[in-house]
Amino acid sequence: MNGCPACLATFRGTPECPRCGADLAPLMALAAHAWRLRRAAREALRAGDFPRARGLAGEAQRIHDTPAGRGILLAATGLAGDPLHPISSAPTPSATPA
Ligand SMILES: [Zn+2]
């Protein structure tokens, strides 16, 4: 979401594409929503609420994938633990006795 989806012109911060005239307002609204979710995720991280931070960052990434969002999601997932793929609580495979 770094440019006009119709003609691929770079975003200029205007709600109308300067090249083809496409209405970019809905995309800008989605990007702003994702930005607010990332901000809330950072606040949840600072507050120590890692599962909430993970949920917010994941939602932000589904709307608008950004490197910043990936970083927040990675940190929150590492701190909260992944219930589907636990790292710390996973039993270590032991060698089968001969
Ligand atoms: Zn365009």
Could you describe the 3D structure shown?
The chain has helices at 25-47, 50-63, 67-80. By secondary structure, the chain is mostly helical. Helix 1 (25-47) runs antiparallel to helix 2 (50-63), helix 1 runs parallel beside helix 3 and helix 2 packs antiparallel against helix 3. The longest helix has 23 residues, at 25-47. The chain has three helices and no strands. The protein has a domain at 37-80. Zinc ion is lined by residues 4, 6-7, 9, 17, 19-20, 22. Zinc ion binds next to loops.
Work out the radius of gyration: 19 Å
Secondary-structure-derived class:
mainly alpha
Uncertain stretches of 5 or more adjacent residues = none
Number of DSSP-assigned strands: 0
Strand content: under 5%
User: How would you describe the shape?
Assistant: elongated
Mean pLDDT equals 87
Number of H- or I-type helical stretches: 3
Features:
98 residues, mainly alpha
How is this fold's topology laid out?
Layout: H1 25-47, H2 50-63, H3 67-80
The structure holds zinc ion.
The site of zinc ion has 8 residues, from loops.
What's a concise summary of this model?
With 98 residues, the chain is an all-alpha fold. The chain has three helices and no strands.
